[in-house]
Amino acid sequence: MAAITHTLDKHIAKAVLMCAVTSARTLTTAELSQGLKLDINTVLPSAKSAVEGLCGQLVAIDQDSGLIDLIHPTVREFLVFEAAGEFAASTSLAPERIVLICLQLLCSSGMRHPRNRRLLSQARPPASPFLDYALTRFSEHIASASSENEKLLAAIDPFLRTNMLSWIERLAVEGNLHPVMRASKNLKSYLDRRGKYQSPLNNQDRTILVLGAGPGIGRCVASLFASKRYKNVVLIARRAANLLVEKKAVETIVGHGRVNVRTYAVDTTRTEELFKALDDADAAFGKPEVVFYNAARVRPSTFFAHPVEDIEYDLKITVSALYTVSQRYMPHLVSLAKMNKTAAHHRGSTTTSESEAARPALIVTSSALPHQPIPQLFSLSLAKAAQRNLVQSLSLAYASEGVRVGVVTVAGPVSAEDEERSPRNIALKSWDWFDGDSNDNGGGGEREPCFEVVI
């Protein structure tokens, strides 16, 4: 190997040896060629000639099958030790490189099924020679990759969010679901190890989602939570013009450059439009650690003159939309809580530190209407009663999992002049409820948070 002096030749030789040492099975020349193209952006006119010319003393190609393998097991032992010098294959970094090659293919548009008949009828480009390896073996390299590097986790995330179901479907069509089971175990192992070195989130990644943003409670909660913990804020409301005002207000209160704010003008009852906005927000900031649900419609309703369609709309805003948002994010919130417990376990403690631990939460604003309905607001009263029931059920189901779920009950009119029920004080009380016993909740302690704070 010492005879290789040309820079590009060295680059190719190192990549070939890395693949030969690290691959979970022997590769064909076509697979190696495609893998090198994705890894080092180099196209080999002839993989066979490159392997034999640069690595012929260590790597051999079977003339019948075209499979590439080390000439002897002792070669592997040599290449994983420092004695191999610059050609050594790092046992922690090499698996990560293989995974990143695989994930490039698994995250590609070619993995996705056509969404309409026109695309379905079009000829699809031929599959990459390396795709079969990526489909079946990528997770084996995750199991042995270093848990300290951010690059791998960042590459896994888009795969899980976009093409994971297409990957499972492809394997199911082939009648081979063993890679799915292996991937589940390997991903869990990787995340468990990662919990030893890195908290689930850092301050730059944390996001709060506020649905029902406005100049009162929504603005004060977004600003206070951002000033204390959240670098990223997502604001959702129906009117775009109002959101521009809210964005500027939050940035001014928290401090320009100290918070990233994205706004989306969308009606929460329009699930498809809402999820499109949330998809964009998740892609920009990552999924939220806290979901603050403040969406509601306050208007008079007279018995038997009030259209049933308006009752249904109030229920959609207050209950159905909250349900769909919870359905979308609760699995993520539970996973954050589990990561806290894993990190605490590896540190030999029942809690993670307050600054590091995630605090997954679903917080919903409520009122006295569930307990004291007002006939002139009967539509909102019944919607709020149903909402409280939903949130209480979610709390019973998920508080024990480590997710803070509860209502902030404002038992009277909200007014900036009211010391107790001003938006600012409501935000402070919301933070106190959210922040209280955070270590017990997120780290796996015995106490569970109370379901409600009454203001």
Number of helices: 17
Shape, please?
Answer: elongated
Q: Give the full name of the CATH homologous superfamily of the largest domain.
A: NAD(P)-binding Rossmann-like Domain
CATH architecture grouping of the largest domain: 3-Layer(aba) Sandwich
Low-confidence stretches: 438-448
Largest sheet, order of strands side by side? 6-5-4-7-8-9-10
Report the span from N to C terminus: 74 Å
Q: What's the CATH topology label of the largest domain? A: Rossmann fold
The CATH class designation of the largest domain is Alpha Beta
Succession of helices and strands: HEHHEEHHHHHHHEHEHEHEHEHEHHE
How many structural domains does the protein architecture include? Answer: 3
Please estimate the helix content. Answer: 40-55%
Give the assembly state of these chains.
Answer: single chain
Biggest beta sheet attributes: 7 strands, parallel
GO molecular function, one term: oxidoreductase activity
InterPro entries: GPIID_WHD (IPR054471), NAD(P)-bd_dom_sf (IPR036291), SDR_fam (IPR002347)
Organism: Parathielavia appendiculata
Family: Belongs to the short-chain dehydrogenases/reductases (SDR) family.
Explain what this protein looks like in three dimensions.
Helix content is 53%, strand content 10%. By secondary structure, the protein is an alpha/beta fold. The chain folds into three domains: 7-89, Nucleotidyltransferase, domain 5, CATH 3.30.420.610; 94-197, no CATH class; 207-454, Rossmann fold (3-Layer(aba) Sandwich). It has a seven-stranded parallel beta sheet with strand order 6-5-4-7-8-9-10, with helices on both faces. Strands 1-3-2 form a three-stranded antiparallel beta sheet. It is elongated, with a radius of gyration of 27 Å. The chain starts with 6 loop residues before the first helix and ends with a strand. Residues 438-448 have low confidence and may be disordered. Residues 8-88 form the GPI inositol-deacylase winged helix domain. Belongs to the short-chain dehydrogenases/reductases (SDR) family. GO terms for molecular function: oxidoreductase activity.
